[in-house]
Design brief:
Blueprint: E1 4-8, H1 15-31, E2 37-41, H2 47-54, E3 60-63, H3 80-85, E4 90-93, H4 96-101, H5 106-118, E5 122-127, H6 131-135, H7 139-150, E6 160-164, H8 178-192, E7 203-207, H9 212-219, E8 226-229, H10 236-245
Parallel strand pairs: 1-2, 1-8, 2-3, 3-4, 4-5, 5-6, 6-7, 7-8
Helix pairs in contact: 1-2, 1-10, 5-7, 7-8, 9-10
The chain binds 2-phosphoglycolic acid.
């Protein structure tokens, strides 16, 4: 399966830095065709500027969250229809930082996935255990529960990707062992059977401290169909190096 390398800029990037980063990646992508799909998820304030900066290149654009409704009286929120209108093809949903900072539940995330689907966006659903949960041997149970609770019933395989992001690996420089990632991804693939048609066509991403130095090994693990990259996606040379290992 063609891999997806997604850059989650989180709450980083003012106009000048974000534009410089997007332009540099677009320049590289125009010069050297990649064998993977490359997605930039800047903060909402930069979507239009990044869309214009990457226009004509193969780089795709994604949001970092959306509301459950497409419009209405929801001050400060952004809808899936608005993301689509701004040029997005994807939206990250259920990231652990939103689950923690905004107390997002599986039920809420499920409604957001349905909204993304209805707006024609591909949802990148994040799941993953905390350090305590892994130490207690509960990693598989946790991702199963998150997947069961947050994946709507009527999803096509092309409308969703799942990102396995252990909370303890995000921004820490620590990653699970290859065998641990392989185990979770095989488990997720199995859990998708019966939930949707063509479960083998759903991309399963790994996220959490993906860097140029470990990307090749991480992306070679069975059932790892791409990466969700935080910190390293803010440096053009690093994100580009990761993208090349996924080709
Ligand atoms: P990180 O973040 O690459 O900085 O660990 C990954 C993520 O939160 O998606």
């Amino acid at each position: 399966m063609r891999k997806l390398i997604a850059g989650n800029w989180k709450m980083n990037g003012l106009r000048a830095d974000g534009l410089a980063l997007a332009r540099e990646l677009a320049r590289r992508a125009a010069a050297t065709p990649l064998a993977c799909d490359l997605l930039l998820c800047p903060p909402a304030t930069l979507l239009a500027a990044v869309r214009d900066a990457v226009a004509g290149s193969p780089l795709q654009l994604g949001g970092q969250d959306c509301h459950t409704r497409q419009h209405g009286a929801h001050t400060g929120d952004v809808s899936a229809a608005m993301l689509r209108d701004a040029g997005c093809s994807h939206v990250i949903l259920g990231h652990s930082e939103r689950r923690i900072d905004h107390h997002e539940t599986d039920a809420l995330i499920r409604a957001k996935l349905a909204a993304a689907r209805d707006a024609g966006l591909v949802a990148i659903l994040c799941v993953g255990e905390t350090a305590q949960e892994r130490d207690a041997g509960r990693a598989l149970d946790i991702v199963s529960r998150q997947l069961a609770g947050s994946l709507p019933d009527e999803m096509s395989a092309g409308a969703v990707a799942i990102a396995y992001e252990p909370v303890w690996a995000i921004g820490t420089g620590r990653t699970p062992k290859a065998a641990e990632i392989a185990q979770v991804h095989a488990h997720l693939r199995a859990e998708l059977k019966g939930r949707l048609a063509a479960p083998e066509a759903v991309r399963l991403l790994y996220g959490g401290s993906v860097k140029p130095g470990n990307a090749r090994e991480l992306l070679a693990i069975a059932n790892v169909d791409g990466a969700l990259v935080g910190g390293a996606s803010l440096v053009a040379a690093d994100f580009w190096a990761i993208a090349q290992t996924g080709s």
